[in-house]
Amino acid sequence: MKVIHNMTIHLLLAMIGTFVVIVGAQTQEGFISLDCGLPVEESPYDDSFNGLTFTSDSAFIQTGKSSRVDRSIILSKQYLTLRYFPEGKRNCYNLDVKRGTNYLIAVSSVYGNYDGLNLDPSFDIYIGPNKWISIDLAGRQNGTLDEIIYKARSNSLDICLVKTGATLPIISAIEIRPLRNNTYVTKSGSLRLSYRVYLNNSNGFIRYPDDVRDRIWDPFFGSSYTQITTNLDVNNSNAYEIPKTALQSAAIPKNASGPLVIIWKPKPSNAQVYLYMHFAEIQTLGPNERREFDVILKGNFNHSGFSPTKLKVFTLFTEEPMKCDSEGCRLELIKTPKSTLPPLINALEAYTVIEFPQLETSLSDVDAMKNIKVTYRVSKISWQGDPCLPKDWSWENVNCTYVDLATPPRINSLNLSKSGLTGSISPALQNLTQLQELDLSNNNLTGPVPSFLASMKTLSLILEGNPDLCKTSLCNPTKKKKFLLPAIASAASLLVIIVVVVALIFIFRKKKVPSDQHAPSPPSVPVTDIGNNSQSESSFLSTKIRFTYLEVQEMTNKFERALGEGGFGVVYHGCVNGTQQVAVKVLSQSSSQGYKHFKAEVELLMRVHHINLVSLVGYCDEGDHLALIYEYMPNGDLKQHLSGKRGGFVLSWENRLKIAVDSALGLEYLHTGCIPPIVHRDIKTTNILLDQNFQGKLADFGLSRSFPTGNETYVSTVVAGTPGYLDPEYYQTNWLTEKSDIYSFGIVLLEIITNQPIIQKSREKPDLVEWISSMITKGDIKSIMDPNLHQNYDIGSVWKAIEVAMSCVSPSSIRRPNMSRVVNDLKECLLSENSRTGESRDVESKGSMEFSRGIYTEVIPKAR
Ligand SMILES: *[C@@H]1O[C@H](CO)[C@@H](O)[C@H](O)[C@H]1NC(C)=O
Ligand SMILES: *[C@@H]1O[C@H](CO)[C@@H](O)[C@H](O)[C@H]1NC(C)=O
Ligand SMILES: *[C@@H]1O[C@H](CO)[C@@H](O)[C@H](O)[C@H]1NC(C)=O
Ligand SMILES: *[C@@H]1O[C@H](CO)[C@@H](O)[C@H](O)[C@H]1NC(C)=O
Ligand SMILES: *[C@@H]1O[C@H](CO)[C@@H](O)[C@H](O)[C@H]1NC(C)=O
Ligand SMILES: *[C@@H]1O[C@H](CO)[C@@H](O)[C@H](O)[C@H]1NC(C)=O
Ligand SMILES: *[C@@H]1O[C@H](CO)[C@@H](O)[C@H](O)[C@H]1NC(C)=O
Ligand SMILES: *[C@@H]1O[C@H](CO)[C@@H](O)[C@H](O)[C@H]1NC(C)=O
Ligand SMILES: *[C@@H]1O[C@H](CO)[C@@H](O)[C@H](O)[C@H]1NC(C)=O
Ligand SMILES: *[C@@H]1O[C@H](CO)[C@@H](O)[C@H](O)[C@H]1NC(C)=O
Which ligand ends up closest to the CA of 259? Predict the structure, then answer.
């Protein structure tokens, strides 16, 4: 038995001669190896011990100063220089990475009395907006090396050093290695290394080139172990690519009938732990010999009857994070009665989970700010790292909107007054789509005020004190005063309206000779395209579904009965031809935004027809009066029913599933039945309406977009939708695809299942998705379900529905199913619920179903 203390590895002394290096045998593909503070003229060089090619860090950071350590002990070359940061609270490296790739990130710092003060620094390191680690170099003459496995959230990675006290942050080396995406996968968070060892009683560590991923393997051996080794080649081909040299030795217990035990204390003691165990049989077994043992992690799992493969690696790892008790984590390998040989283990890695909950500032804002920074050569020391986060060190002269950790902040104001700006107004500003205030006063800007500024509705723009700006006809010649842009804005929006109307005329003309309503329509003019100007008529052309305002007044009996109020106006009850009931949405005339949505909706509903989409009866477009006339849905919306606001009767599980299938069919039609496909963008329970038979239909197409072509994604300039239902990936990247609807639909399903608010502060986990995940982990299904259902449901169909919903709300869009898949799965749920109805079955007996938990084996071994 042996206790491993949770070691922060410090291996910085070069271990000369402990292993032979085959320089150049491997590729170092995707490696980033920075020797911080290295003068550019000495860059790059190959490390003489391991052949890694190091470069100077100067291209990746604009701040800080270089220095050399004062030490007589021989260090690896990369620790001889360092970068320190006398200015600014936060200084950041910015590195190019690949979004979605899992990286091993290692940062090392060796103080080496570079400043002659003999004061060991302490400081913090952040990854993007999230704190990774506090470094304290007191008593660490050999420096520190900290490692993490982190999945890149964008194509750019910020590693920031933050001053926390009197001493200056320092950094010696940054090493980044891409890992295979299918390795070291966590349920959430990143992995901080506890230890990574191979069982050998030598004292040499292993890293690149033996390890193609350049992980550092320390030797580890207990006094109660016996070492076995082989000279034969061990096949290391599995996803983890364990170095062969690490597999060629193993430990067995000295007492051949006793267990092999490894104990360690994770930090913090309640941390979630992931363990990766690598086994290979490296002894030649006789005909009657057999090695078989149980792998037991106390309190977490028991994998019985494991037999290592001959000269071939086999990796066992925890798929779910495990928790160890106050005595620490305890791994036991126990020989089974059948076995003639003691258990063995070759290599072992343990990690603890570190959560990085704060999402970065919206990617499009970050890109725009970087662009602006470069264009105007802004050299403010605070303009490094994430512009909005952490709040305390957000960029000077930039203000942001913050919602919660899971919502990327957005930039809402920018003050570049007196910043010495020259040249024209950067088009990158238009990508700051949430900007409310922009102060460019007192610079030397030239050229015209671009029209995009005018189309940013709520923007307050200050341009005074730029003598050479604003010489075009559009501009206001009096530039003494701060001027807001309503004039230009309305001119521009008029232009937008005109173009849109032209576009609609074009579309409607095409629609005038429809042969088959269900045939795919020709691609429409992209409605967002404010292309070339042309002369136009002032209203929609007439069609038979067009109503006058007088007719609208008549059909609603002078707006007698309001049914509800939506985002863009009030909905009234009405009657056409004295018989057909309709719902009339009267748009508030004020916003041109409203007009845009009005137009989008008319266009869309004219070309799509489906039983599960609310159909358009007509519209009114007369001067200021805009109205949409839909078929009447007597049973209101799904939300009202779930919340009991409709007479208090409870929708049965079966009914809920039916409505879910209906809405899924409507959405499937938009995604796959329409050419080009349509993204609804505002799927939510209030937009699912119910007809007299409780058939569900999707409504409110005001935000819908169709794609220019088939499978392409679409970058929209304004993220739209309803908070809570909004796809976080879309929100962050502005990349709009059908998958965003699928996310929203997943939220709807979760509401149908739980009848819980999407966000509820008083809940253990305020976020519905997180809350459900935690309940699922506990296997606690009854507390997930809407209590109003009184457990009157088929538990199998419930599980299935939860599974579908959870896959829809996967943070990564590629993991979400498509709508056809969702439809099929929901139909299955409905079938299994239907088969229950009428039968009396013991619901309780099936209530204990659990998601599979525990150890995962990389290739499934059959228990023998
Ligand atoms: C990991 O996944 C990302 C995105 O899914 C991909 O771009 C990258 O190439 C993958 N990396 C590796 C090493 O497989
Ligand atoms: C630094 O490394 C040397 C050589 O391995 C070792 O003797 C010494 O104890 C280490 N110092 C610390 C503080 O770990
Ligand atoms: C493991 O131990 C054996 C015997 O002690 C030694 O020959 C071998 O070099 C060691 N392996 C490594 C990678 O150091
Ligand atoms: C190693 O094992 C893999 C399959 O597990 C096999 O495809 C490969 O050929 C083996 N390599 C050697 C050198 O035997
Ligand atoms: C060896 O282990 C077995 C089983 O745990 C135990 O019964 C026995 O006493 C141990 N022998 C020695 C010498 O420790
Ligand atoms: C592990 O599982 C095996 C077989 O299921 C059983 O014999 C053994 O007692 C279990 N050990 C522990 C510690 O639960
Ligand atoms: C922008 O900063 C300047 C000082 O540099 C200040 O005078 C001005 O009021 C600021 N503008 C806004 C809109 O806050
Ligand atoms: C940001 O907010 C602060 C405090 O609310 C305010 O003083 C400052 O003027 C704002 N900055 C900009 C650029 O608007
Ligand atoms: C705005 O953002 C889009 C998408 O990120 C990008 O392609 C475009 O170049 C940006 N525009 C400017 C002017 O930076
Ligand atoms: C603008 O440029 C002129 C000369 O090119 C210079 O004298 C003046 O100070 C500049 N103004 C600002 C506000 O930078």
Answer: 5
Residue 490 has pLDDT above 60, yes or no: no
Give the phi and the psi of residue 422 in degrees, each rounded to 5: -130, 170
Residue 844 C-alpha from the chain's centroid? 37
pTM reported for the whole predicted model: 0.61
| CA gap 40, 60 in Å, rounded | 12
Boundaries of domain holding 843: 638-847
Q: Rg (Cα) of the chain, in Å, rounded? A: 32
Could you give the number of structural domains in the chain?
A: 5
pLDDT at 20: 36
In a domain, 670, yes or no: yes
Is 65 assigned to a binding site? no
Pairing mode, if any, of strands 696-698 and 688-690? antiparallel
- The span from the CA of 130 to the CA of 854, in Å, is 29
| Alpha-carbon distances of 64 from 132, 176, 548, 597, rounded to whole Å | 20, 21, 69, 50
Same domain, 549 and 662: no
Q: Does residue 726 sit in the same domain as residue 808?
A: yes
Q: Measure Cα distances from 774 to 187, 227, 749, 767 in Å.
A: 11, 43, 17, 11
Tell me, yes or no, whether 335 and 397 share the same domain.
no
In whole angstroms, give the CA distance from residue 622 to residue 553.
Answer: 12
How many angstroms separate the CA atoms of 33 and 104, rounded? 12
Percent with pLDDT over 90 in the chain: 45
Residues 760, 814, single domain; the answer is: yes
Q: Quick check: 790 pLDDT over 90? A: no
Q: How far is the CA of 100 from the centre of ligand 1 (A)?
A: 6
Task: Please identify, among 329, 354, 379, the residue that sits at the C-terminal boundary of a domain.
Answer: 354
pLDDT digit string, tens, across residues 650-669 = 888 988 999 999 999 999 98
Is residue 108 domain-shared with residue 56, that is, in the same domain? yes
Catalytic residues: 682
Residue 294 lies in a domain: yes
CA dihedral (475, 478, 482, 488) positive or negative: negative
Ligand 3 lining (C-beta closer than 6 Å): 200-202, 204, 206, 229, 245, 249
Q: Helix 653-668 to helix 738-754 angle, to the nearest 10 degrees?
A: 170
Q: Whose CA is nearest to atom 3 of ligand 4?
A: 237
Question: Phi, psi at residue 748, to the nearest 5°?
Answer: -60, -45
Number of helices (H), then strands (E), belonging to the chain: the values are 14, 45
Q: Write down which residue in 491, 521, 555 finishes a domain.
A: 491
Mutate-to-test residue for ligand 2 from 141, 144, 205, highest number of ligand atoms within 8 A of CB: 141
Domain match, 670 and 809 both: yes
Ligand 7 neighbourhood includes 415 CB (under 6 angstroms): yes
